[in-house]
Amino acid sequence: MLGEHLLQFRVVDRVRQVAHVNVRHRIDSWRRPRLTFRPATVRRNRFAACAHCALHRPVSSLSGWGLSNRNRAAMVRFEMGATGDERNTMTGKERVRATIAHQKADAVPLGFYCADYDTVERVLGRKTYVRNKVAIQLALWQGRRDEVAESIKKDTVEFYRKIDCVDIVLPKEAITLPPKDYEPLGVETVGENQYRTSDGRVWKAVPHVNEIGCVHDPRPKQTDFTPEEFAQPLPVRPPDPSCFEAVDYLLAQLGQERYLPSMPPTTALVMLGGTENGLMQYLLAPEAVHAAARRQANHQDALDPYNIRPGSAGVMFDNDMAGSNGPLISPAMFREMCLPYFKQRVAHVKTFRDQLILHNCGNNLPLMDMFVEAGVDCYQSLQTTAGMEVGLLKQKFGDRMCFWGGVAVEKLIDGTPQDVRKDVRTAMERGAPGGGFILGPSHSVAKNTKYENFMAMLDEYVKLRDKF
Predict the structure, then answer these.
(1) If you average pLDDT over residues 203-229, what whole number do you get?
(2) pLDDT (0 to 100) of residue 86
């Protein structure tokens, strides 16, 4: 039903009495969430706390409903996490800050990294640009920047107010907005899901995986580099304030209660001339790589006063350095050619904020000690299929770093609700004891996530979040 978000759960007692729990999130936010618990022989409505919200109103009496004591206890656990209103002692922002700092929190926090548009649309009941990478790119080429900005602002806020058990929110698409007075590149369709921009590049969209990328670039490609090319610093041009329109809106609307980090750019792996050529330069032109990395880090440092936004709770770097079989370069090479500039970036952003989160896909186990050495406080993207299992990471580094993830994105897409629930339980059992753990997908709530799996993840999390 458009405008209403319905969750249904089943509770079964010892004599096989079946009850359904309907939780309705209404778009007209002035109405408090209504929870209707309907045993097979009873049809009485009660207002109570929503299982997926932090509202935690007192649960109405369950006496006289024909429920067993076991079901009454299950109902209270479902609504209140078995410990009453303990979770009310902290906001999501406070909860995440305490968890990253390895301090006591009232519950395990939850964060998605991001949720792709198909899940957001199911929750909102309408189309959105939020995390719709193909639609955003086409709209910006066509000059519809303000339309994109308005959707990202309003839809992101509404989504997280509906799914308000989430403690940490990343302004992913909000950081990509061009200024209001930008000149659109211009685009024409040249084939099915193929586009040519006015600079001659050809782009291919793959809507079913929410990606768009350049497949032909007629511009000359440089393949050889020297240190002298990077001797002069890059000019520092303050960004137009309108570039931060969406980020600042999200901070104003959500930043008091949720943990919203700033996301300034960083480049741990400089790729001169593209990925393949860039990796070759680490062997063929190491001094040029050093010079380029040094200049890039200095330039990013100079832009931090603009990119680290007022009111943000911390900083997050978003930089992949590995495949599923290991880092893109050897640990020894990373230490020599990347770590000095990465440490420089970490130290600089920590003059603005005291907590740094690193998103980094793939198997980075050989680099983890260096991330700790650099000053990373929290590591996100625990790709279990690549060996980044939270129990192993906690055992090796848990006293020095917080970890965020644990629910395999593959299970969210291809698994069953039972698979997802098992993943949540395993992640909580392995990651939560001792603190320093944020539950979330191994990457994100990616395109093609089954909606029932998304709901199962939330439900199982709510049941377990304050058990550790």
Answers:
(1) 96
(2) 53
Domain interval for residue 37:
4-80
Nearest-angstrom CA–CA distance, 309 and 243: 12
Q: Which of 52, 80, 108 corresponds to the end of one domain?
A: 80
Give me the mean pLDDT over the 6-33 stretch: 34
Same domain, 265 and 390: yes
* Angle in degrees, CA 430, 359, 284, rounded to 5: 125
Beta-carbon count within 10 A of 50 CB: 23
Q: Are residues 24 and 165 in the same domain?
A: no
Cβ-based neighbour number of residue 399 at 10 Å: 11
- 6 burial (CB, 10 Å; 0-12 / 13-18 / 19+) is exposed
Q: What is the pLDDT of residues 58-74, one digit of tens each?
A: 222 323 333 333 333 33
Which neighbouring-strand residues pair with 259? 168
Residue 45 within any structural domain of the chain: yes
Single out the residue of 252, 241, 247, 240 nearest to residue 175, CA to CA: 247
Residue 171 and residue 32 share a domain:
no
pLDDT at res. 88: 67
Query: What's the whole-model pTM score?
Result: 0.82
pLDDT given for residue 385 in this prediction: 84
Measured CA to CA, the distance from residue 365 to residue 331 in angstroms comes to 10
Q: What are the DSSP E strand ranges found in 260-364?
A: 315-318, 322-323, 326-327, 356-359
State the pLDDT at residue 468: 84
Taking a C-beta distance cutoff of 8 angstroms, is the pair 99, 402 a contact? yes
Whether residue 408 is contained in a domain is answered as yes
Q: How many domains does the chain have?
A: 2
- Which helix or strand (DSSP H or E) is residue 37 part of? strand 34-39
Residue 173: pLDDT band with limits 50, 70, 90 = confident
Mean pLDDT for all residues in the chain: 85
Pairing between strand 202-206 and 378-380?
unpaired
